[in-house]
Amino acid sequence: MSEEEKISISGTVIFQKINIDSKSESFQPFLYVNKGQIIHLFLKDSNPFESNILNQYDGKFITIKGFMKDNTFIVEEFLSS
Asked: How far apart are CA 11 and CA 14, in angstroms?
């Protein structure tokens, strides 16, 4: 299995409610990149239902490093905040 291509992206962290009116309804982190492009974020090796580490970046402009997998950006490293 080949390793995913690592990239760095910058944007503002926002939290949006997903899966409304279902058992899996929750606020999840996204990165607002530019001109309406929004990318779902997941912190590598974390609980997908709790984004405690990413909560501290809510509303902040950050640069992160990681890779895309199934329409989600897997965050491996915080480069700036």
From this structure: 9
